[in-house]
Amino acid sequence: MVRFAGFILAVVLCCYREKIPFWRCLDGLTPGIVAALLISQLGNFAAPFTVGMPLPSGSINEQRLAEYVEYAYRPSGFEGYEYFKPVALYQAGMQLVVLLAAVWAAWPRCQQRLTAGMTFLASMFLLTVIRFGCGYMYLTTDVSGTLHFGQRVCLAGAAACLLLLWLRWRKKEENVFLVWKE
């Protein structure tokens, strides 16, 4: 979260210094941002950093995706389970769809029809919704029905993206928010 805010601040400063449109710059960076997040999730799947809820013993067959976690790496209290939901893989699969949509939206023909910033904001909205939904499958999920911190941050991010999307959609001008002209 802090790293992403720092990234946005760096983009703002670079855009201001180079006098390039902020939102168009973010639109151009969006496929790379989504690809980096997708690769991160694949890394989380390869090394079981994020473990999903356990699958009941005997429920594994060839048709179900499951992540085997070595005994030494199983979370405390879950040593009796061998297979867990591969949440990081689910998340990476959905992020791949967002990546393909972002690449499609980055084509010049599509960019001409979209207001600057729409690709970035729509992609970030979808990514926060994906992360929010996958938050229910993590092993650290609170069973009392309350949202954990990551889900609350995702809700705030999704609301901010929707608000900015609505503002960008209403204005349809290039020089609405954080744009510097020569």
Walk me through the structure:
The protein is an all-alpha fold. The chain has one domain (22-171). The protein is 59% helix and 2% strand. It is built from six helices and two strands; from the N terminus they run H-H-E-E-H-H-H-H. The protein has a two-stranded antiparallel sheet with strand order 1-2. Helix 2 (22-46) runs antiparallel to helix 3 (87-106), helix 2 packs parallel to helix 5 and helix 3 packs antiparallel against helix 5 (118-134). The longest helix is centred in the N-terminal third of the chain and has 25 residues, at 22-46. It is elongated, with a radius of gyration of 19 Å. Residues 174-182 have low confidence and may be disordered.
